[in-house]
Write a structure and sequence with these properties.
26 strands; alpha+beta; 27 helices; 789 residues; 7-stranded mixed beta sheet; 50% helix; 6-stranded antiparallel beta sheet
């Protein structure tokens, strides 16, 4: 443990100081993030990951690491701000609102600078490009219009460059500042000392610096002006930064919207029965809160009194309300639609599901995949190399005896075109937009490294109960003996089973109650452990004497001496062989019918299996259930018999995963229970169904909030789409710089054209990333459509 800790540190981590998140302010580009990361990693016992897009640093610290205050001081010593990142629903909400306000102000500032600079730069560009418009003294007007752009408009770049220079560092802003300053400074020299300030001078627009000429005013030495470069380049860059800021703000809107959904107030039920209104953040565990129709439930809890319908679409994505009654779990931020509820709080603050989802979204956006680390490493060395190339370009042109203005133009073009804004935007924007879109669809990606994992997954191991199936027993087919009505069979069997808490009995009783409305009265009950029930049932609509009913396994009715009508015993055996739980019911010495109970298959499971195979992923079914049940379920959803493993214990699930991995497969595991947690953690990609156990979700890489297996397909598709977008962004960013810098150094691109191309590449990267916002879940796509993959 670290020798000293701060209060904030202790509050967040207790005695475990392994991981700390810092919010870092003042970073202006990916190079800044790389510099902070290198410095933190240079501290003893510290392994840091810094992300420019989310302005965050994750620190893994060992016992000999410096105290958190010292590490914050290290970051501040670099010229940046740092403080512990917020945790918990309320802190995250407050931080998100503050970040949103700061982002809005920053975006507005960039927008204002862009439009003012554009209004000033466009006339300068037009005058420089069109000789016919170059009236007498036009160059001095151009200077007057350019100066505010270079000083005020480009100030964010100059400020960042000066800050980093004070710490002996260079960033992408250094390139921008130097390029603009060089173009403006050279133009000033030409105007005041080189003869370009003479009234009547004209200048032709040229694509190549070497071909640019000025009108001859009767002799004298004239030099090319780069005022259009000094004005247009920062204008386009401000436009790119504005687009970047808007993209980052939009991408983070899912988190802010999610956090705003929490209730602000709660009505706590006092001991005297009165209701006391307090902030929702002040609710304590075991306190009882009152939720009226139309209000949001303030925290996670159990219904203590009342029945109602709850809109849980926030968490499940389903528009159908959920019926709740005493004993049912409810989640904070869901909406109570009808009746009055009294809810006993079970999880508050950072432990609520809303806060945990928000943390998952934040962590996913703050992490870094291998492709992001590659971009950061390149950015860290890119700026010094470009500065060296620019200086070498100027020296080479001068050494070859070429005109000074042409050499300066080439050197300035290198500085301008090399600004790797597209490289810095390539990964963060795609990650932010992709994970933000995922959170909107109920697909939570625990970290960007998951993106890399999804690319190579070729096998998915599926738990049966709660993953492929609904996870709860329900009555299916009802088979009656000759002369027996369905209502009679359901009424007597349902009433007999109503007193049992066994899932099979509960399914029969619930179905009978739903279909018949009322159940008969049980006057005598004898529970036959492991076999069934004997009960005396008086029908609800008759005053007749009670009927002695036996309900349970077929073996129980054999034991009681009940006779089987022709064909009914064979029907029971056939159903059982197909994986159906068969309950027999009889009275008056004869078997009167069969009630078939099974865990119902999720409606989307078969389609999900088909889509997984279309993605090149082979599904396996692994369950602790019997062979008959496992193969019956597999057949219904389309899993090949050779990929079915039944009777598998929890520890054996881990062995299944490791065996597949040993065979060379990259394995995903999808499950929802505590018994799946170890396998989820062992798999290359763990996928938790959101309706399952907390430990399963904590052990997974992906969480499907809706619980449907089709969400697994969407999560993999979205992850792969995000990874593909990142790689496309990086390719074009690298290709742009590799191709453009040599052209600029050879004098084949003017600084103006270089600046336009550089800004265009940055905007292209942002727009390409924003395409992820249009990602559609499989359920919204045409069946069997090629774009479903």
């Amino acid at each position: 443990m670290s020798p000293t800790t701060t209060d904030a540190e202790t509050d967040r981590a207790g005695t475990d100081l392994a991981v700390t998140e810092l919010a870092v302010s003042g970073m202006t580009c990916a190079s800044c993030a790389a510099r902070v990361e290198r410095t933190l990693n240079g501290q003893p016992g510290v392994s840091a990951t810094v992300n420019y897009a989310t302005a965050s640093a994750f620190l893994n610290r060992t016992d000999d690491a410096p105290p958190l205050d010292d590490l914050i001081g290290v970051v501040e010593g670099l010229g940046y701000g740092a403080e512990p990142a917020p945790e918990g629903e309320d802190e995250l909400a407050a931080a998100a609102e503050a970040e949103d306000a700061a982002a809005a102000a920053h975006t507005a500032d960039l927008r204002r600078r862009f439009w003012v600079s554009a209004a000033l730069a466009l006339p300068v560009m037009a005058l420089s490009m069109v000789p016919a418009w170059q009236f007498r003294g036009w160059q001095w007007v151009a200077l007057a219009l350019t100066t505010p752009v270079v000083t005020w408009g480009a100030w964010p770049f100059h400020r960042a460059a000066l800050t980093n220079l004070a710490h002996r560092a260079t960033t992408m802003d250094t390139l921008v500042s130097l390029g603009v300053t060089a173009a403006y400074g050279w133009s000033l020299w030409a105007l005041f000392f080189g003869g370009a300030g003479e009234l009547g001078m004209t200048m032709n627009m040229s694509w190549l610096p070497a071909d640019t000429t000025m009108g001859d005013m009767g002799g004298g030495s004239h030099h090319e002006l780069y005022l259009e470069v000094a004005a247009v380049v920062p204008t386009f860059l401000l436009g790119g930064r504005w687009a970047e800021a808007r993209a980052k703000r939009r991408a983070g809107s899912a988190l802010r919207s999610l956090l705003r959904l929490g209730a602000q107030e709660a009505r706590v039920l006092a001991a005297d029965g009165n209701e006391l209104t307090i902030p929702a953040s002040a609710v304590k565990v075991d306190q009882r809160v009152v939720v009226r129709p139309g209000e949001r439930i303030p925290t996670d809890g159990l219904v203590a009194a009342g029945t109602s319908s709850v809109d849980a679409s926030l968490l499940t994505g389903e528009s159908v309300p959920v019926e709740v009654s005493p004993g049912d779990e409810v989640t904070g931020a869901t909406v109570n639609l009808s009746g009055r509820l009294e809810v006993t709080a079970t999880r508050v603050g950072a432990d609520t599901q809303l806060a945990r989802i928000a943390s998952l979204v934040r962590d996913a956006q703050a992490g870094k995949a291998d492709v992001q680390r590659l971009a950061d490493r390149v950015s860290a060395v890119f700026v010094p190399v470009v500065l060296a190339i620019s200086a070498l370009t100027l020296l080479t042109w001068l050494a070859l005896g070429r005109p000074v203005d042409a050499g300066v133009a080439a050197a300035v073009a290198v500085l301008v075109i090399a600004c790797p804004c597209a490289l810095g935007l390539a990964t963060p924007t795609a990650l932010l937009v992709g994970t933000g879109r995922g959170s909107q669809l109920g697909l939570l990606i625990s970290g960007p490294e998951v993106l890399e994992a999804t690319r190579s997954i070729d096998v998915v191991v599926l738990d049966k109960t709660g993953t492929v199936t609904q996870g709860n027993m329900a009555l299916g087919e009802v088979v009656t003996a000759p002369g027996v009505e369905r209502a009679q069979l359901l009424g007597l069997a349902g009433a007999a089973e109503a007193g049992s808490e066994h899932p099979i009995a509960a399914a029969i009783a619930a179905a009978a109650r739903d279909e018949l409305g009322r159940l008969g009265e049980v006057t005598e009950l004898n529970n036959r452990a492991g076999l069934g029930i004997e009960a005396s049932v008086r029908p609800a609509d008759a005053a007749a004497a009670p009927t002695r009913v036996v309900v349970g396994r077929p073996a129980l009715l054999d034991e009681e001496g009940h006779a089987w009508p022709d064909g009914l015993a064979e029907r029971a055996e056939g159903l059982a062989a197909g994986g159906i739980t068969v309950v027999a019911a009889g009275w008056d010495g004869e078997v009167r019918g069969l009630l078939c109970v099974a865990d119902q298959i999720r409606p989307d499971s078969a389609r999900a299996i088909s889509r997984l195979e279309a993605l090149g992923i082979s599904p396996w079914l692994v369950t602790g259930d019997s062979e008959a049940v496992a193969h019956a379920v597999a057949a219904k959803v389309g899993i090949a018999p050779e990929r079915v493993m039944a009777g598998v214990l929890p520890e054996d699930k881990v062995n299944v995963v490791t065996k597949l991995q040993a065979d060379g497969h990259r394995v995903a595991m999808a499950g929802d229970g505590v018994n799946d947690a170890a396998a989820l953690a062992t798999a290359d990609l763990g996928i938790a169904m959101g309706g399952g156990a907390d430990v399963a979700m904590e052990a997974s890489d992906l969480t499907i909030v809706s619980g449907g297996l089709l969400g697994t397909v969407d999560a993999i598709r979205l992850a792969r789409s995000t990874l593909g977008t990142i790689k496309a962004n990086l390719f074009w960013a690298f290709a742009y710089n590799v191709a453009a810098i040599p052209l600029a150094a050879l004098g084949l691109l003017t600084p103006l054209i270089g600046g336009l191309a550089m800004a265009a590449s940055s905007v292209l990267v942002v727009l390409n990333s924003l395409r992820l916002r249009r990602f559609q879940p499989t359920a919204h796509l045409r069946r069997h459509a090629s774009d479903d993959i």
